[in-house]
Amino acid sequence: xxxxxxxxxxxxxxxxxxxxxFAFWGQLDEGGRRALLExxxxxxxxxxxxxxxxxxxxDAAPGVDLTDxxxxxxxxxxxxxxxxxxxxxARAAGEAALRAGRVAAFTVAxxxxxxxxxxxxxxxFPVTPLKRKSLFQVFAEKITAVGRRHGRPLHWFIMTSHAxxxxxxxxxxxxxxxxxxxxxxxxxxxxxxxxxxxxxxxxLESPGGIALSPDGHGGSLRALHRxxxxxxxxxxxxxxxxxxxxxxxxxxxxxxxxxGWHLVRGAExxxxxxxxxxxxxxxxxxxxxxxxxxxxxxxxxxxAVQREVDLPTGRLRYVAGSIAIHILDREFVRRMAGGGAxxxxxxxxxxxxxxxxxxxxxxxxxxxxxxxxxxxxxLPFARNALVSETRRADxxxxxxxxxxVDSPRTAREDQLRQYARWLQGVGASLTTDxxxxxxxxxxxxxxxxxxxxxxxxxxxxxxxxxxxxxGLYLE
Length: 475
Ligand code: UTP
Prior knowledge:
The protein is built from 14 helices and 21 strands. It has helices at residues 8-15, 30-41, 45-56, 84-99, 135-149, 165-174, 219-226, 229-236, 256-264, 303-306, 330-339, 392-395, 408-425, 452-461; strands at residues 69-71, 103-108, 156-160, 185-189, 192-194, 196-197, 204-206, 209-210, 212-214, 240-245, 269-275, 284-289, 292-296, 320-329, 344-349, 353-354, 360-361, 368-373, 386-389, 443-444, 473-474. Helix 4 (84-99) packs across helix 9 (256-264). It binds uridine 5'-triphosphate. Uridine 5'-triphosphate binds next to loops.
């Protein structure tokens, strides 16, 4: 398209009442015009109009539907009443799928990471206690180790954003893909949505740039489809996708028992749960609503309901917390990607923009909204959707905030506690405090052990045994 004549796209924006997007058109050079047209071309004007009416208009739905809600059932772990033999069968099914090459790892890494405030893609954040390995390296080593164990290297799909794509790819190249076969590592960008003011007018971040941001982790389903990743999987015989977030160094990227439960139950989508530690813990809740599995966010479930307990056990009624770890069936993703079935959510934000003269404006209070889709909103559409329990200490310690809860410090300590448990499990002597935190800093590479069992096997083989103390690194 020529960037000099008045392009039809511009006309369409004017007709949709979004002509302000091109307010500075006359001042842009040819390159600037082309860039703006490219951004504008990404925007689905009908969708923006629909979302404005649905989420911002006077008739906008007044919050989340909480009718006919009850706690969701889940598969309990053996130590909490689950059937050990069934867990063993599930695990065997998961291992068979891994040996057959049916499983791929999938990381969503397109978030903005505003709360952490780290300058760089979150996956490049140094997270381990001793070696300061990045989150990406931790996952790469886990994926390598699981592939070795099952005699089948895995494919790894990584969803980035426009903002961090190039830096993410460069980081992998710089680190020689952490020893992975680069033909099996696939990067693709997620989609973007424009930010709007509270009347639905699309905001500019500069005279030649629209305020665009990632469309939420739910955008991963569309992006997997659009990027050709699903077709690539199909060609490789992969039908099962192990989904996890980039911010969680403890995650078992590939968990045979979880994969097995998903397969044995014929689920199209599965989710891991941990029992909430306390009623106000900021986790989504797995619930059944009108007979379907849903996640109700902590901010949407009234505190009084979050505090309800089951008598006589005294356990929280809504105990099942969501930790954003899923298994997805490939063809289910294809179905969900096509239909626009997932709802958008509105998030009011302070959006950096410009005034009528093109000068930057940094608002002190929210001045508009972003639209995002969430991956867990796919659960109610999935056949036989399944929730399976995991141990927090083995799967969940996210790095969200710069300090306090869910921060680099808590993630570091949780990794150290895990190493200490594994070492104590094989009889090594190690002093810890009451919370299980060792007195020394040490580290275990996932290539040595990525779970208790693989750790114990490597330990048994290691001769002579190393001295357990400050600075120990097992690889
Ligand atoms: P969060 O909800 O923690 O958001 O993402 P965030 O953008 O990373 O961080 P804040 O809220 O700005 O501090 C959870 C996971 O979902 C991914 C993130 O990369 C993270 O792995 N995500 C989130 C995406 O891939 N795309 C998105 O649009 C949003």
